[in-house]
Here is the input.
Amino acid sequence: MKYLFIVAVLFSFFSEINAQVTLLNADEVQEIIKQKEVELIDVRTVEEFNENYIEGAHNLIYDEDFEEKVKHLDPSKTIVVYCQSGNRSQECTRLMQDFGFLKIIELEGGLEQWMLEGKPTQSNEGDAIQNHPKSN
Here is the structure.
């Protein structure tokens, strides 16, 4: 009986420290990324990133080397991940969980949804901030 109690306590402890991916909308992400201890990661290709990205984002391309790249991030920071529509970022967040990241946020709907909601982006093609009209 005592053994079962110890196993239950350990299970409870380890399930609390397992990483959870939080799916947030554009408004919520816009507020979160204002914090200093947040790392904003764009997992799209260089070409996609150069077209438009969220200010402050680092381009960490989701490719065959992604696992190696992730090892250079600080797992104690909150990591916000996005791609174009949400598919690649979902795969990336799963890998990040495996590497022990505890605070992972995924932008719901990706950059497409961000822009549909009228949120600003930047571009390496002229570095202009683009404000996107909010669709109704």
Q: What stands out?
A: The beta strands are 20-24, 38-42, 58-59, 78-82, 103-107. The domain at 19-116 is CATH 3.40.250.10 (Oxidized Rhodanese; domain 1). The helical segments are 2-17, 26-32, 46-51, 66-70, 87-98, 110-116. The longest strand covers residues 20-24.
